[in-house]
Amino acid sequence: MINVALHGAEFFGKHGFYPEEQLLGSKFVVDISADFEPQGALQNDKLADTVNYEHLYELTFTQMQHPRKLIETLCQAIIDDIVKHYPYVAVVSVTIKKLNPPLRGKVDHSSVTITYNKPENGI
Predict the structure, then answer these.
(1) Of 3, 26, 45, 54, which is most buried by a Cβ count within 10 Å?
(2) pTM value?
(3) What is the C-alpha separation between 34 and 100, in angstroms, rounded?
(4) 90 neighbors 19 (Cβ within 8 angstroms)
(5) pLDDT in tens, 60-101
């Protein structure tokens, strides 16, 4: 099993439940982890045989451009894109951290993590 991951990818997005959040936007940090069996022999040294972390970043960047009220919805959309482009992944985990959420006191970040596990029958 191979794990390809992105840690601390920073984005700006207009996600949030409150209209002010959707107007002003916030900074987000995203962590992605994808576990899979290689699609070819690793000795072949081909990008097509693995999960391309540059592509993971681009998929996430695209989803970050579409405002959503819930971080959960955004997290699931990123996972759906990854599974669509890499159907051989066995496990995908996405964590989205919203920096300085609008709360009464200082909070470093809030976060949501969703983990996808490929069904045993592969569907």
Answers:
(1) 26
(2) 0.89
(3) 27
(4) no
(5) 999 999 999 999 999 999 999 999 999 999 999 999 999 988
Residues in the chain: 123
Active site residue 46: no
Residues 6+ apart with CB under 8 A from 55: 85
Determine which one of 27, 84, 97, 98 is catalytic: 98
Residue whose C-alpha is closest to residue 61's, from 12, 99, 101, 14:
12
Integer CA distances (angstroms), 94 to 3, 18, 111, in order: 13, 23, 10
Helix then strand count (H, E) for the chain reads 3, 4
* H or E element in which residue 80 lies: helix 71-85
Query: CA dist 2 to 14, 25, 42, 75, 77, Å?
Result: 33, 35, 11, 22, 23
